[in-house]
Amino acid sequence: MNPRSLRAVFDTNLLVSYLLVHRPPIATLLDVHFVAEHFTLVTAPALLAELARVLHYTRLQHYYDAPQRDRFVALVAALGEVVELPADIPAICRDPDDDRVIACAVVGRADVIVSGDKDLLTLKQVGRIPILAAAEFLEKLRGIGS
């Protein structure tokens, strides 16, 4: 499999965690190159809206100013292939936000869901789509690239 043909949906908590650990602008510049070379990020307007909402939580506001948070959401949208979710999303998880992640993966023909969310990780797989932690996903990328 060509690494670029790998299609991945990232859960919001993973993106927020990433942003808190890796500081722009250097991390952002490196990551644009990494994503473009290694996989196709699949997302949806509902997931982008959730990311924007979460990044504006009061407890996160001291990490970045509003323009930096907005640029990060715009970067995720620009890097990703944005798919529209259906109006009726089946309830699979306890959290409806997790159901949107799964729906995005199904509609976007993703090969993997990457998450740090225990509710999603517990499922291990939905249909043919595995649900992996970030470290497992990176290992998968290493295996494809070899």
Quick recap:
Helices cover 53% and strands 14% of the residues. The chain is an alpha/beta fold and 146 residues long.
Order of helices and strands: EHHEHHEHEHEEH
- Beginning-to-end CA distance, first to last residue: 11 Å
What is the radius of gyration? 15 Å
Widest beta sheet: strand line-up:
3-2-1-4-6-5
**Beta-strand content estimate:** 5-15%
CATH superfamily (homologous) name:
5'-nuclease
What does the model show?
The protein contains 7 helices and 6 strands; from the N terminus they run βααβααβαβαββα. The chain has 146 residues and is an alpha/beta fold. 29% of the residues are buried. The chain has a 6-stranded mixed β-sheet with strand order 3-2-1-4-6-5, sandwiched between helices. The protein is globular, with a radius of gyration of 15 Å. The protein has a single domain, classed as Rossmann fold (3-Layer(aba) Sandwich), CATH 3.40.50.1010.
